[in-house]
Design goal:
This protein is α/β, with parallel strands linked by helices and 127 residues long. It has five helices and four strands; from the N terminus they run E-H-H-E-H-H-E-H-E. The longest helix has 13 residues.
Amino acid sequence: MTDKPLLILIAGPYRSGTGGDPRAMAANLARLEAAAWPVFAAGHLPVIGEWVALPVLRSAGAGPTDPLADRVLYPTADRLLAHCDAVLRLPGDSAGADQDVATARRRGLPVYRDPAEIPRRTPQETA
């Protein structure tokens, strides 16, 4: 158990294996988001790189299949990892998620493969 809430990056397939199909990417994002509740319920704060990167792309007039996406999606995850305490790596082939894991390991951050591995936060009383 830990008394500090961790900021946990949820990493897994988003564009991988979709062939650019918006419905397949939406389904992948939904799978990533489905892992947010178990992280939150354990007392931590989940974050998904696409939650930050997609609005950045939209503000640049681009989307996830635009050539600009590689210059936004991967750097966004890397910048987020500078603030994260851990990574939850979901199953599925994903070069970006593998890169997130490698970055986390280089930085000495724990990498979890299942939400059940994440330490539960000790509840704190609030005044």
